[in-house]
Amino acid sequence: MKQELIQDAELVSNYIRGDERALSVLIERHKQKIYSFIYSKVYDKDITEDVFQDTFIKVIRTLKRGKYNEEGKFLPWVMRIAHNLVIDHFRKNSRMPKFDNAGEFSIFSILSDSSLNAEKSMIKTQVASDVRRVIEELPEDQKQVLVMRMYQDMSFKEISERTGVSINTALGRMRYALINMRKVIEQNNIVLTN
Amino acid sequence: MEKIYSNASPKNDNLKPKEETISFLLNYSKALSVINYNKLKFEALLN
Asked: Which of A24, A28, A152, B36 is the most core-located residue (most Cβ within 10 A)?
């Protein structure tokens, strides 16, 4: 039977059972679509290469751990992983994504220069220090979730696994952390803007 | 009213990952071994 006739689901099943060639076929079959999708978001080939690699590392680990539920949707699943990794990339770099405007004007093409002058650098350091002090005022469980989320870039799933609570509880703690931080800031008239 | 036609985005057939990346992924997959022990899963990268 020709390789093109084998459905993704069967290739996935073969791969899970130990057939490494099946992975090669799957990557070859879908690499251009996934790569193009990532590139259309980040517009940088080096970053695209990294995200593509990280996507398939997650795919490989999930399949080998037996945590994949076959519902005939291998490609959408991989695209979702790639999409989430693109979002993670932008979150870490604090930039808005570029949209494919097909040559039309995009407001995102005039993002300001992110380098800071000396004064702004000092203000940024002070603000970061003040934010940290406000966080210290939080109850321990809320502080823990907030630090994991904002300073360690963990997903709520990872936070819930690490802290031993449900995702909903972690989400609630994060929400209350932000509410309480706002209260502390307002009560103490702290200015956290440039 | 005049219709506005936007140019279609040129298709870029160069958009594919490097061979080294593919090769790395395939080697990573061959080296990765997941061991089940007492409801825990351990990942090991074999030489």
From this structure: A24
Q: Where are the domains of chain B?
A: 18-47
Residues A103 and A27 in one domain: yes
ipTM of the complex: 0.70
Token pair belonging to A51: 């995200």
Give the integer Cα–Cα distance in Å for A131 and A147.
Answer: 11
Domain boundary, last residue among A109, A124, A149? A109
Check if A60 contacts B (Cβ < 8 Å): yes
Q: Which residues of A touch B26 (CB under 8 A)?
A: 20, 23-24, 27
Domain assignment present for residue A194? The answer is: no
The pair of structure tokens assigned to A97 is: 């994504």
| Domain range for A182 | 115-187
Among A20, A52, A104, beta carbon nearest to B26: A20
- pLDDT digit of tens for each residue in chain A (194 aa)? 455 578 999 999 999 999 999 999 999 999 999 999 999 999 999 999 999 999 999 999 999 998 888 777 899 999 999 999 999 998 887 655 555 555 555 555 555 555 667 777 777 888 888 888 889 889 999 999 999 998 888 899 999 998 999 999 999 999 999 999 988 888 877 777 65
Helix (H, G, I), strand (E, B) or coil at B32: strand
